[in-house]
Amino acid sequence: MILNLFEHITRSADCEEKGLHVGGVYCPEIRERGVRVGFEIIDLYSQAHGILASIHLQGRSRIGRYVVNIDDLTHIGVNALETAMKTADVILLDEVGPMEMQGRDFQEAVLRALASSKPIIGVIHWRMQHPIVEAIRKRSDVSIMEVTLQNRETLHSDILKRLTEDSQKAIS
């Protein structure tokens, strides 16, 4: 559902038309024979792919049945956010959730992105209790929108409209 929203935003003619360059990171599911076995991590700028978490990995950093791949989270995720802060007009961040918060370097990159002047379209795990997530929820410059079955096909238009209105306000 979220990947669909992010795909809509990154491929939107509105982004191209308005000259909005989008960067950041997203983490789609990995499925084998229809069963979720993990999550990929993808840098939107470089298209670098890695494994965020998988049932097939071994390691100590576990969330449920998944082992988090801190190396790919750091190498791909942190680099994606750093590049987006330098080159993108809008940063996409999927997601700030339990798996991503396993990486200290990723946490710090999220905080740097939040401190930047760039607008961020992000996903926060709705049950997540973490100081970074709580800080995001409390920010006065944050709008939280719930993705539902009813709005998932049109929410990208609402988000892009807000972004372009905000960027026009900043210019005038």
Describe the structure.
This protein is an alpha+beta fold and 172 residues long. It has a single domain (2-164), classed as P-loop containing nucleotide triphosphate hydrolases (Rossmann fold, 3-Layer(aba) Sandwich), CATH 3.40.50. The protein has six helices and eight strands. The chain has helices spanning 2-10, 13-18, 70-87, 104-115, 131-138, 155-171; strands at residues 22-26, 29-32, 35-43, 49-54, 62-63, 66-68, 90-96, 120-124. Strands 1, 2, 3, 4, 5, 6, 7 and 8 form an eight-stranded mixed sheet that branches. The longest helix has 18 residues, at 70-87. The protein is globular, with a radius of gyration of 16 Å.
What general form does the structure show?
A: globular
Mean pLDDT across every amino acid position: 85
Order of helices and strands: HHEEEEEEHEHEHH
- Examine the secondary-structure arrangement and name the CATH architecture: 3-Layer(aba) Sandwich
Q: Return Rg in Å.
A: 16 Å
Question: Class by helix and strand content?
Answer: alpha+beta
The fraction of residues assigned to DSSP E strands is 15-25%
- Note the gap between the termini: 35 Å
The largest sheet, given as strand count, sense and whether it forms a barrel, is: 8 strands, mixed
- What does the oligomeric state look like here? single chain
Number of strands: 8
